[in-house]
Amino acid sequence: MSVYDHYRPSERAFVEQVLDWVQQVESSYVLKLTDFLDPREQQIVKQIVGNQLVMHSDGGFEGAERCRLILAPDYYELNPHDFEIEIRRIEYPTKFVDLTHRQVTGTLLNAGLKRQKFGDVVLQDEIVQFATTRESVGFIEMNLDRVGKAKVRISSVEQDEILVVPTIEWIEGFGIVSSLRFDTVVSEVLNMSRQKAQALVKHGDCKVNHKVIEDASFILEPDDLLSVRGHGRIKLMEILGSTKREKIKIQYGTIR
């Protein structure tokens, strides 16, 4: 069985990239520092690397979701500076503007920064911070001076001022579905019609494992993370078997 058989066809390109990273480290005996990876990508790297190499992760924030990974030979000793992560703060007129996570992420992308070049965006008590790669700091400072209509300033953050990512508390639930299609599961969990779930997919408002999906019939698997704009997140935790009528029993978590 090929290693690719364990992953979805859409993940093949990333799997190939990870295999190339492993080969580079094993053949050249130098560490490989990745860009910021989402949780699914991190999971794939860990599965492929196994015990072949030493692996460390850091996202800049305690509890970070998106992290950079270091893959290295077994004699490597971790130096936190090797992650090359910088935390920056967005200073804005808090009396007149309320910034959202979506606005900040969208602004960074619209400025020309690729998604893998910045990590988590953390908002707390009118403080906005984000993690980025050291090489991207100059580009951000030169190209980002507004978020929406608000004029902003990018500033550095002292180590003791770095925020902590809030802990995610999933609300667990159970359901019965006829299939593991995206629209079927979302319909059950969010108590909406399949037609509405399909419309959300069509409008680009849905993601699976941080990637936009364009097919409402996309088949889900355990540990998949779903995001539905305006409705929060769903995590498919476990398949619990079948009913006598051959429907599927699922356990899930939600954040709204």
Automatic annotation (TrEMBL):
- Domain RNA-binding S4 spans what residues? 180-249
Q: Which domain of life is it from?
A: Bacteria
Which SUPFAM superfamilies does this chain map to?
A: Alpha-L RNA-binding motif
Keywords from UniProt, A to Z, are: RNA-binding
**Sorted alphabetically, which PROSITE patterns does this protein's record hold?**
S4
Q: What is this protein called?
A: YlmH/Sll1252 family protein
Species whose genome carries this gene: Exiguobacterium marinum
